[in-house]
Every structure is written in structure tokens, then in C-alpha cells.
Hints:
Layout: H1 22-30, H2 37-47, H3 51-63, H4 68-87, H5 92-102, H6 108-116, E1 122-125, E2 128-131, H7 135-142, H8 144-148, H9 166-178, E3 182-196, E4 206-212, E5 221-230, E6 235-236, E7 245-251, E8 258-272, H10 304-314, H11 320-332, H12 348-355, H13 360-373, E9 378-386, E10 392-402, E11 406-410, H14 422-425, E12 431-432, E13 436-440, E14 465-468, E15 471-473, E16 478-486
Helix pairs in contact: 1-4, 2-3, 2-4, 3-4, 5-7, 11-13, 12-13
Protein name: Transglutaminase-like domain-containing protein
Pfam family, one: Transglut_core
InterPro entries: Papain-like_cys_pep_sf (IPR038765), Transglutaminase-like (IPR002931)
Amino acid sequence: MTARPPLPCQREASLSPLLVTLVVSVVAIAGPAAASSDVRTVVQLVDAGDFSAAHKAIDKALLSSPAPEQSRAYEFERERMRRILLDFSLTPADAQARVRKQIPDLTDAEFAKWDQAGWLESRVIDGQKKYFNRAPSNLFRLSAEARARRANPAPFNDSPLETPHPHHKEVLAQAKATGNSSVAPRRVRITQSINVDADAVPAGETVRAWIPYPRQIPGQQEHIQFVSSSPAQHQIAPESTLQRTVYFEQAAAASKPTTFSVTYELTIFGQHKQIDAEKVTPATPSSALAPYMGERAPHIVFTDAMRKFSRDAVGDEKNPYRIAQKLYAAVDRIPWAGALEYSTISNIGDYALHTGHADCGQQTLLLMTLLRLNGIPARWQSGWIFSDGAYNNMHDWGWLYLAPYGWVPMDVTFGRFHSGDAALDAFYLGSFDAYRVAFNDDYSQPFTPAKQHFRSETVDLQRGEVEWRGGNLYFDRWDYDFKATLLTTPRSD
């Protein structure tokens, strides 16, 4: 299985440009909390890499018996530091050694130059420089100079659908021939599992697990059929749940891993909307569109920098579709790189704007922010992508609303192709492949049944979540797997 790389982070120990949103972020990921100056101070200390001072401030604050909401916010900051340290695990020597595996004759000067350029993610934590554990591999995505120096260059493990593919032509051809927007279906059997480390919790304790489960979306994914699960007893969240799960409980056994899995089938359709820019009009605000317009702190905020980026990209354009095309192109120019866990990032859209690279969810939230800033409704969707072969990975994408066409697909991470065929090159602004299962129709939404402890992933739901009465089990205590098998014939009933 190809796991999603961890999510990116700040290069150095600089403070976030949106400190005002930091406490809002804590509220969103740790529960309601008062926006006290003490909590804000701790957040700033963590972002500045002064973990020692942050721990002392948390200890002092908890002695005063703050309200439960504030206590939870403080405890999450302690957990956030632990998560950051897991991702920033490399010393300078470690980072150089990993780069040297690809470039045996690497010089100190080369490493220093690439480091200075910001192509090697790092933070100063309690006075020590630590590198993001994906920094050495990200280097070769971000720097053409570094790529050219590799002794044995190997292709990146990207989806075969990130370049022109026969399936793209199939979607376009069927949409043109039928006039339908949902075409080229695939019937898929999916098995997703969680494997909790042996002795991660004491023997006899109940382990609670949530595995993503798709919801019926007419014209996009239909005919969802539960096949089996382990353990057999399970609870599937209601169809209306925007981050839908199948929930399990199982007693842990001594010296044995605790495993959970679910298998189901569904039919997934390719999507295509043929847009005539001259017919597009500004969206009329309505109660249905209101949730997808305007700001949504902490990750969708109209900062001064965001407004400037938008002005530079859009210019004097007034047509919503052409504005969307310009913004899509501007975000598409931001290179992809493996990213730090989202739960450690204060404002994901702003981060993608400033860091010089971004992963799929960061690019999507940035594009959503820019679209909404220009009065174009935009919403989130995410899940897994797969192929006819062995490839699969977690992925985030979105939809934008264009009147009179309605919701239109967008995948800015797959971006624009360069085949010379205009319709094919523009595929992922207006079309989707049928090799993606959606689990999330929004981000940072509650589970059914509710999770009692901190979530490991506070934005997405793709790997799952695990906890016991003693607390959350973070990703370092369990592993996950996803398998998609294409079936012979899609259901047509």
C-alpha cells in the first residue's frame, strides 16, 4: 500500500502570520475553548519552537484548575508538541545522510544552499534544528538541481491518472455522446483495515475504532453494498454524516495486535461538466450556498496576503468561470510535496500560500479560500484514489459552484495537462475520473458515535481513528491498509 506522505510544516521557528486564528484552531481541533491570553501564549510558544517554555506554561495554567474547555486546549497543545516532534525527527546529520543516499558525492555547500532555499523543511525546537522526516525525499520534488544530481533517479510513485490517460478520453467521449455528466462507471470492491500495535492498550481494555465508509452521492457514487467486517458487530453512521464511518469495539489481547476491517462494494462514476464561459453568471447567495461562501476559520481566512495573491492572479477579470480558471492555474503552479500532519497547522490555506509547496489538501483549501474570496462557492471532498494496477493513495479535492451549471469538479493537485488537446488538458477543472472514492463531503466534522478523545487527524478522515478509555491512539500506535479491486461489470440497477 502507498500511504499518504505526512503533511508539510513551517520551515523555521517563525510565528504564524495569523496568530489571531490560532486559538480558533485549538477550539476546532480540541473542543470549545475560551480565547484566553494564556492559551494564546502557549500556542505562540509552540509555534515558535519554545517547547520547554510551553510545557512550563501549561503546567502552571493547569494548577489553577481552568474550565474544562481550557484544560482541553492546553492538553492539546502538549499533544501537538509531541506530534511535531514525531514529524521533525531528523538531526542535520540525519538529513544529510538521507540525501547522500541519493547523491553519494553530496557536498556540504550543496546541502547548505538547498537548505537556505527552503527546500529542506526544518524547525528550531528548544534551540536544536530538526528536519522534517520527509524533507530529504521532498527535496527531489522541489529542486530540479537536486533531481539532476541523483545517482540512480527513480520515478515518483504518482497516480497514472496525473498524466493523460485513456480513461480521461473515455469520460469526455461518453459525456459528449450521451449528454450526461455522470459517465464511465466502475464497480469496485474496497477493503480497508486498521491494525493496532500489540500491547498498545492493556489486555482486556476495549479498543474503539472508526474506519471511513462512503455515503451515497447520486451521480457520483451509488449502490453501496456492505459485504463483511471484522469484528462482525459494527455500526455504520447515518447516510447524512458528512464524515461517515463504520464503528467497531474490540477487547485487546495480550501480546497480539487488535485488527479491524470492513469490505464493501460501490459504483463510482466519472464526471464531466461542459462549461460555456459566456453563459456563466455570478452565484446568487442562498441558504443552500451560504455554507460554501465566505470565511471559515481557521483554515479559510481572507488575509491581506490572500487578497493580494487573488488580485495578482485574477486581474480585472469579472467572469466567474474565467476567474476560477486563473485561480486554478495560480494554485496549480505551487509544487506538490509531502506534508506535515494537518493537526499541527494553524491555518492550512494560509500555510499553502506562504510555504512554497503544498500537498493535495493544502492546495485544495487554498483554492477554496481564493474562490470564496471572489464570491464563488467552493466545498471540500476527499477520500482515496486508486488505479487498475497497484497504485492507491489518500487524496483531497473539491467542487466549485458556477451558475447556471451547478457544482463543478476541481482537482488542482492533478492540475492541467500539456498534451495539446485543450479539452483533455483542462480535464480536472470540470471533470473527474471514476477512480476515487469519497469519504468526506466536508472537513473537521463530528463522528457518529462521537469520539471522546482528541482526533489523530483533525481535518480529514481517510485512515481512520482509534481510541480507548485511556485516550486517543495516534498514528504511531497503529497502521492501516486500503485495497480496491475493480469488478467485471458495474451495477446498472
